[in-house]
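Quick start: what a row looks like.
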Amino acid sequence: MSLMGNYMPHGHCYLWRQDLLLLHIGSDLLIALCYFFIPCCLIYLTKKRNDLPSKWIFYLFAGFIFLCGITHVNQIITVWHGVYRYTGVFKLFTAIISLVTAFVLLKLMPRFLNLPNMDDIFKTIELEMFQVFNRIPIGLVSFSKDNVNFVNSYLKDVLGLKTNGEKDQKLFNYINDDYDDGSVATFEVEDKKYHFQVFKEKRNDETVLYFLDNSVLIESTGQVIENYKKHSLAISGVNDGFWQWNINTDQIEWDDKLYSLYQVEKGHVNDMKQFLDIVHPHDRYRIQRALKDHVEEKIPYDIEYRVFVADQYRWFRDRGIKLENESNLMLGTVSDITERKLAAIKLKKVLFASNDLFFDYNFTNDEVWMEGKSKTLDIDMQLIRRAFKSPWTLKLLCPESQRIIFSWWRDLIKSRDLQIQREEILCMKKNDRLIWLKCSLFLEKNEKGETINASGSLTDVTNIKQVQSHLEEKTRDLRKSNELLERFAFVASHDLQAPIRHIKQFVELLNVAVNEGSREDIDRSMNYIREATGQMRELVRGILEYSRIGMESVNLEKVNMNTLFEEVISLTKPLMDRADKIECDIDKDYYFLAIDRFKFKTLIQNIVDNSLKNKSISRKFHFLFTIEGSASEVIMKFKDNGNGLSEGMEGSIFNLFTKGRESRGSGIGLALCDQIAREHGGSIKAYNNDEFGCTFEIRLPKKT
């Protein structure tokens, strides 16, 4: 069904007579324009009057009237086009909103009927005014001819009149129409005189007189004068200058002290532009911005800037406030802070040159001040606040450092001293590395023993700790080297002299055998001399190898441990029996390790040689090499079923020239193993197994 339809235009009903067309079309057009204008007025009224109750009823009326205007427009359209169905739809909308408006108006009718009329409103206002006039300390009387209309309570109390509202002829002894506006009236009541300033007002046939008690005015004036004297005395006691700025006219007024502070000739500065001319160029925009923020956003105006005074720039602190009752007036004070500012700048330079981070925490208002190398240490104000408020949340501190923080808390809670000073070393994690901090702390307490402030400094002493650690390590190495040197000197003097003594003895025996011509004695002496010489050569070779291993640096490379072990076993096979069993069990995660290939090959070979020298003749030799890992270490184990370690040898087996159960070795091989393990940052130990043999265990850092 078409919304427009195909109907006869309404103009046929008018027989297309021009007079009828003009009459109906003109009337509908004027009505529609008025109906469109009235809703605009209603909406404008509701926007401007926020105090109107039930604003939505106005919107309903506006919609109803607007749709009525649309129907009249449709009446004009149907003169030429028969769109009666379209016109009917709009009439339906108009009917719906008319019903809604009528229903709402019916609901609101009781409220509208209860609205007070203007006479009631004026009576209420008049009653409230009379109540106010009865409370204020000003006499008020209203009369016409011989009739008194109103007398407030204050004037009744002063004149001793009746307060029950009855007429009192005594009033006319004091009140008449002869007073001039601004004149002075003196009343004497019961030997007491009252002096009033009289203000007169004529209202048709009614006369209103206001009596202002001059004694109140005199007392108020005295208080104002006294307060002014105190204010002037306070102003003279400070070295601040005062200013006044008219925001609208841009005029500035200074007092004499401010001219003196700026050392500007009086009257030279009259507006904001002239003032900004004497300010440092870098500070002018900040002043303008701060003034604008205060005037528009009510942000406190408190700024520091420089002014050119006596061939140099001096620092001033400017504070001001815009008066609430004066929209165009702003008052303020100026203080010279040059000395304090220069001291602060010097302090800031010192802090910048220092490697320390300085902090101050106030327990009362939870405020933190911090200055110094905060970026270097990656410490912010929130971290300082948490250190004192909730130290258990500081996950970046090492456990020992957390215990130190908790000890501070014990001091905060238990100590009653007014001041506490302490100095500790803290360890903090940063990017997977340790940062050592030296913390100097000063705690301040009040008389009740409550901590009110904590001040201190943090210094990055990581490099110092690393140097100290390196020195301690070198000191331990030097101490151990000295011990080895002493042991070496002692053992060398014994073990090196023993073969020499044997050689000397057998040389003497050889000489006797040669003189006697005994071939058998000659061969026996030569064999002894040859054996002693071999022992001496083996001892010297071991000493040279030990010293060479200690002098060479560690060259780390990625090494296949299975291949390295097989190389060592292939070199020792000539010393093994066919029944000997050697196994290797390496965890798949540790096939490759970052080690010094040559030195670790020497280590493994010395341990294997030591096991072969000490294998038992009563059982088949079995040797097992394993590598596994823990949370922080790589663990190597060399396990055999030989004769094991002699009792008490577990702690000294790795000492230089110390020999095990069998004395065929030089006592240098296992000392070499200990040195190689330590050079890789690890350790080595030996212990007997539960049944047979012993185990050599090497632990290396996980990074290996």
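That is the whole record. The chain has 18 helices and 22 strands. The radius of gyration is 55 Å.
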